[in-house]
Write a structure and sequence with these properties.
The complex is a heterotetramer, with two copies of chain A (about 160 residues) and two copies of chain B (about 80 residues). Chain A is α+β, with helices and mostly antiparallel strands and about 160 residues long. Helices cover about 35% and strands about 35% of the residues of chain A. The chains are: A alpha+beta (about 160), B alpha+beta (about 80).
Chain lengths: ~160, ~80, ~160, ~80
């Protein structure tokens, strides 16, 4: 891992919200070598209307470390000038942001692949767990891991 | 050694961390889980299906057949659901 | 093409800039069914420092129509709840935005694929042409189409 | 029929649009381009390699072997470089 590569990775684990536009601007302002920026925003869904909030638990220290490891692999695989990951923890209401990935590159396919790779590995390897809180005041279930998320990793082999 | 518990494992055990001194014969993650399972009813329930329990040693994922080494911190948690 | 699908496509051809964060918020506010938002921002690059601006010429009427056709195909292929495309025209300085795609879905892979498909076809089929204006005051070349952009379409066959 | 020109085709022809009445024997895009090529030096230069010229009829891409039909608007332009 070169210093240059490491310098371009930013990982933030935080309770507060983020703004994708502000993050894109911060990464691209006064730069003339970035032709493509791909962002992924993951939001809290509630399709049947029963959810009051998701509570995101994380493993402090390891969450940052694991996402940095995933980001370093992405930067080794594709020519990314920046890779930013923000993951929230705590209670998150339906419709609110959970995670943001911003991948910058001179070329669009690298930016798409870098962001998509990062999300696939973050889903299955970053130490976060979601618990449902329901509108009726009860504490719902811990969200189960999806086989489809493990499956998604295979395309990067 | 610090041992951390997360998510429903933390809830079922009723604690988020503890200090443990492991018997010297425990070398692998799997041996550690087998030893933990004998520590009482709650541990037995949590480790009924040890394959679903994920383990990190000093902030890195470890498979059950890997060694623990001289770890400062071990964490047990279910499969992750972030993102 | 169902009415529902068409209602979720927005295409804007405009000279002024855009803000990805504001566009994401407008599409996701008060919605609880969107779990994934992927944006692509294309920026004006100037790696050797000689460019004053790119001038984007377009074919009014056809530019909108062609991008809508591409977006409709994307919405038929993936379950996208929204697909927004903004493409600027006129003079655009290095580092400025040229194009924005925002794809919303309940699932992340559909959002990634929809945005990537849209960009691949927009590049080769939307009637826009770029001319370089150089810092020395001279009018540079019309940018040439890239074979790599035609190649990129093959993975969607 | 309105005929539009874009990018370097517009620049070399020195006009962005004109009104034309096509001879009735012209049915396809290719026939239209061949007819255009005979309209003078600039047209001949622009259409020296007709394969690189893209054509849209009423805002839709058309291949050179496709028919024009009763078009209201035809546009000639080089390969696109947007995005």
């Amino acid at each position: 891992m070169s210093d240059t590569t490491e310098a371009n990775i930013q990982v933030r684990i935080q309770p507060h919200d983020f703004d994708a536009g502000i993050e894109i601007a911060a990464l691209t302002d006064s730069r003339f070598d970035i032709g493509a920026v791909v962002t992924f925003s993951g939001l809290c869904r509630d399709e049947n209307g029963s959810l009051s909030a998701l509570e995101l638990e994380h493993y402090p220290g390891m969450a940052e470390a694991e996402i940095i490891r995933i980001a370093e692999k992405a930067c080794q695989r594709w020519p990314l000038s920046h890779l930013l990951v923000i993951h929230r923890f705590g209670k998150i209401a339906p419709g609110e942001n959970i995670v943001l990935v911003v991948a910058c590159s001179s070329h669009r396919q690298a930016a798409f692949d870098g962001a998509s790779y990062l999300m696939d590995f973050l889903k299955t390897r970053a130490p976060f767990w979601k618990k449902e809180h329901l509108k009726d005041g009860s504490s719902g279930e811990w969200v189960s891991a999806k086989d489809a998320d493990d499956e998604a990793l295979k395309r990067w082999e | 050694m610090k041992v951390l518990y997360f998510s429903w494992i933390r809830e079922r055990l009723g604690m988020d961390e503890e200090e443990l001194t492991l018997p010297s014969e425990i070398k692998t993650v799997g041996e550690f889980l087998a030893w933990q399972k004998n520590r009482g009813e709650e541990f037995e329930a949590v480790l009924e299906f040890p394959d679903v329990v994920r383990v990190a040693v000093d902030h890195e994922h470890r498979d059950h057949d890997e060694t623990i080494g001289d770890a400062r911190e071990i964490a047990l948690f279910p499969p992750m659901t972030g993102g």
